[in-house]
Amino acid sequence: MFFYFSKLFWIVVQPINLIGILVFAGIVLALLRFRWSGIALSFAGFLILALGAWSSLGAVLLHPLEDRFARPDPAPREVAGIIVLGGGFEGGVNLARGGYEMNASGDRFVEAAVLARRYPRARVVVTGGTGALLLAGEGDGDTAPKLLTALGVAPGRLVLETRARNTQENARFTRELVEPQPGETWLLVTSAFHMPRSVGLFRKAGFDVVPWPADYQTAGTETFGLAQDNAMDSLRNLALAIREWIGLVAYRATGRIDRILPD
Q1: How much of the chain is in helix, strand and coil states, percent to nearest 5?
Q2: Degrees (nearest 5) of the Cα angle 238, 230, 43?
Q3: Taking a C-beta distance cutoff of 8 angstroms, is the pair 99, 57 a contact?
Q4: pLDDT at res. 2
Q5: Do residues 113 and 154 lie in contact, with contact meaning Cβ atoms separated by under 8 Å?
């Protein structure tokens, strides 16, 4: 139930959808002669658009998420496994056309391939099924082997978890699958903005992982202001930030993680 509620909730509050809903509702109210209510809703939609597309608000909200964990320095000498979370492929395109087309989070899998070369004895775990509620697509656990083997990762090193629909299931199913042993080092690769929630969920599942963030969306030096990036990237940053902060608060409120921002 939590999975379906979270997906439906995000459909509504995702900034571009919310802007459309507010503007449409404002027009309807204006036509029904609730003029000032209609103006208020339409203005709210415009304000979200202005803050999201024409300001650096999204980047500023991403900073504490992306800066929460850094890659270990020095890096571990021995690694038992490298876990890469799904979310980096265009599932619908790959289902229809084959191949391994990547989306904006595809850096996760490039970084996993780099680490696999650095740690040639480590297992490479790909976790991620189909998490979409409405759109059909190929799960990342099904697509990733095609890319990783093309980048030189031996098929025998791959461990595939294809059931998980969200990050909580990534953590739980991966732990059940690989059965980590005391003293082993497991690297967790995901987008930097997604790392706090991921680390919290893996720890809650009893899997102590070493964060290895990738796929940074900001330089970390942005300040709040106007026109510091193109409008589409700025709006996307706002959507990513809102989704992660809502996810962190919701997971903490429901006991799925122990802290909003894990250490």
Answers
A1: 55, 10, 35
A2: 55
A3: no
A4: 64
A5: no
